[in-house]
Specification:
With 495 residues, this protein is α/β, with parallel strands linked by helices. The protein folds into two domains: 123 residues, Sandwich (Immunoglobulin-like), CATH 2.60.40.1180; 360 residues, Glycosidases (TIM Barrel), CATH 3.20.20. The chain contains ten helices and 27 strands. It is globular, with a radius of gyration of 22 Å. The chain binds alpha-L-arabinofuranose (AHR). Alpha-L-arabinofuranose binds next to loops.
Length: 495
């Protein structure tokens, strides 16, 4: 057994945790919308055609900002195709995923879903094949009161009140050569600035997310961001970051160390934002919107072959993937001062915490870390000093076996700890310097038989969060034993 002590102090605060870091992402890809969220012929369908079983499970994730309709799909999507009476909407051959898109789920259906689920709408405009004016027209459709061309279209569809969509993304991954309408940074910046101007002229209250470079391995990394942020200036409220990770070398300790590089990606993008702010001598800066993140490396089927709702990117997740998902969340909490929005990509069937098969549904391992954090998200992120053993990882330098974060909410201290050690149990001591731990309000642990263990339709409960009663309080500190490869989330009462 090893011993790790977490030191924290209520005054050593990183920043308020923005609830929007617990966002999700719903794209028209594979079986995410059709057969995932929306399936009118399912026995689980509600009056809107949405699957109640899926929505009920998603409710436990308490997601906030829900990005839609893509992703790569957004760069070829014309929002008018998904508006108006359903029988009149066209079926189109969409090019991002080579699939058939019947447009039976569009803006109105998405907004109804957001209201049902208490999600904050977050729309991505088409800056690939679309025009800045088309983007601006979508803002009018969603946010303008009745009496104009596009708002009256909304009213005619039965929604007299504006939808009030505040968060808009200026395209998607425009630095990727796979993106429809991909252009160099300087051209994207012009396109985005034109759209931003017209969109904000239509509704001053909206917030805009500029496309950042879409990956740390891209040749565009950082230089794209500098150019785009400098050109957009105050029009960019946020800049996007994307990250997909995987255990390609089948090296679990190295894979679990990837959190170091997520921390670094955030810190580099923050540096780019501050650099541009300094160069512009501006009072304002862009904040970080991590609007696509997850584990994705096993299921690379991306060609829909002209089918409707093809099986694409249906990743099956195991215990080590769940611990890496926890790593992303630790990192967002640790950087609460700069990461204001983050969206788990995605929510059902496509690289998702939930899978469907006919009328059946399966909750995957990665569902649990998200739920464990999300249930304890309110408050201020505290700096956590980890005092314990570490190891040398192949790709990400030295890492402590304990990956940790903490959120203080008045008399409640939420502590999250991953034991990355594949063999050793960790004795964990949490010792707030200026607070006394008085009680354990709740605690859950997520672990499993081995790193590769996963849930299946036949055995759905292999990797599930369980109540944890092993925490002991002594002299104002709390201690417990964490099994190898596990995540602990605790809510402590402090005074
Ligand atoms: O989430 C799947 C895809 O990954 C998105 O459509 C795209 O933005 C990213 O490359």
């Amino acid at each position: 057994m090893t011993t790790t002590t977490l030191h924290l102090h209520s005054r050593l605060q990183v920043g308020e945790v923005d609830p929007r870091i617990f966002g999700g992402f719903l794209e028209h890809i594979g079986r995410a919308v059709y057969e995932g969220i929306y399936q009118p012929d399912s026995r689980h369908a509600d009056n809107d055609g949405c699957r109640v079983d899926v929505l009920t499970a998603l409710r436990d994730l308490r997601m906030t900002a829900m990005r839609y309709p893509g992703g790569n799909f957004a760069s070829g999507y014309h929002w008018r195709d998904g508006a108006g009476p359903k029988p009149e909407r066209p079926s189109v051959r969409e090019l991002a995923w080579q699939s058939i898109e019947p447009n039976q789920f569009g803006t109105d259906e998405y907004i109804r879903l957001c209201r049902k689920m208490d999600w904050t709408p977050m729309l991505t405009v088409n800056l690939g094949t679309g025009t800045p004016e088309e983007a601006r027209n979508w803002v009018e459709y969603c946010n303008s009161p009745a009496g104009t061309r596009y708002s009256d279209l909304r009213v005619a569809g039965g929604s007299p009140d504006p939808y009030g969509v505040k968060l808009w993304c200026l395209g998607n991954e425009m630095d990727g050569e796979w993106q429809l309408g991909h252009v160099p940074a300087a051209e994207y910046a012009i396109r985005a600035q034109q759209a931003a101007k017209m969109m904000k002229d239509t509704d001053k209250s909206i917030e805009l997310v500029a496309c950042g470079s879409c990956g740390v391995s891209m040749g565009t990394y950082m230089e794209w961001d500098r150019q785009v942020l400098e050109y957009l200036g105050d029009a960019a409220d946020y800049v996007s970051l994307h990250r997909y990770v995987g255990n390609r070398d089948d090296d679990t300790p190295d894979y679990l160390a990837v959190t170091n590089s997520i921390d670094r990606q955030i810190e580099e993008m923050d540096a780019a934002c501050r650099f541009v702010q300094a160069r512009r001598k501006s009072k304002t800066r862009a904040y970080l919107c991590f609007d696509e993140w997850n584990v994705w490396y096993k299921s690379m089927q991306m060609d829909g072959a002209g089918q409707f709702a093809p099986h694409l990117l249906e990743e099956v997740y195991n215990l080590e993937d769940a611990l890496v998902v926890a790593g992303f969340l630790h990192s967002f909490v640790r950087h609460a001062d700069v990461v204001k929005i983050a969206n788990l990509a995605q929510i059902v069937n496509v690289i998702a915490p939930i899978l469907t098969r006919g009328d059946e549904m399966l909750v995957q391992s990665i569902f649990h870390p998200f739920a464990m954090f999300s249930a304890r998200r309110g408050g201020v992120s505290l700096s956590v000093s980890v005092d314990g053993p570490s190891y040398e990882s192949k790709s990400h330098g030295t890492v402590a076996y304990a990956d940790a974060s903490a959120i203080l909410d008045d008399q409640r201290l939420n502590v999250f700890v991953t034991n990355r050690d594949p063999v050793a149990t960790m004795e964990l001591i949490v010792k707030p310097a200026d607070l006394r731990v008085e009680a354990v309000e709740s605690a859950e642990v997520l672990t499993g038989p081995d790193a590769k263990a996963a849930n299946s339709y036949e055995k759905p409960d292999v990797i599930v969060a369980k109540a944890f009663d092993g925490a002991l309080i002594k002299d104002g500190a709390v201690s417990c034993e964490l099994p190898p490869l596990s995540l602990l989330a605790m809510t402590l009462t402090v005074a």
